[in-house]
Amino acid sequence: MLHHLSFAVTDIQRSAAFYDAVMAPLGYGRVWEDETFVGYGTEAGKDTFALKLRPQNAGVPGDGFHVAFAAPSREAVEAFYAAALAHGGTDNGGVGLHPEYGPDYCAAFVMDPDGYRIEAVV
What we know:
The protein is α/β, with parallel strands linked by helices. It has a single domain (5-121), classed as 2,3-Dihydroxybiphenyl 1,2-Dioxygenase, domain 1 (Roll), CATH 3.10.180. The protein is 20% helix and 35% strand. It has a four-stranded mixed sheet, covered by helices on one side. The chain is globular and about 40 Å long.
């Protein structure tokens, strides 16, 4: 359904370092970049998630909005969570099984350095 999604960020270097770390365990990496933009995906030149530098008007959506990234395994979910906390993210619901969403729903919930709510799920 979605072709791509982008977040407005206040510090492109800080955000790119964070997303480099959390995307790697999920199998995603930088596929395009310039001074004000970093795109992530699996194929060169074809980003599906992007960061755009907007220091004056980066507005983070409120509670109720989040983005869930597909993970290949539970180990990748755990690695995503550890990388997020090690690179400026904060816990937003823990990591592991979340039976409130289903018997096998394994996810990690964090907030990135700008305050976006993100999740890795398998």
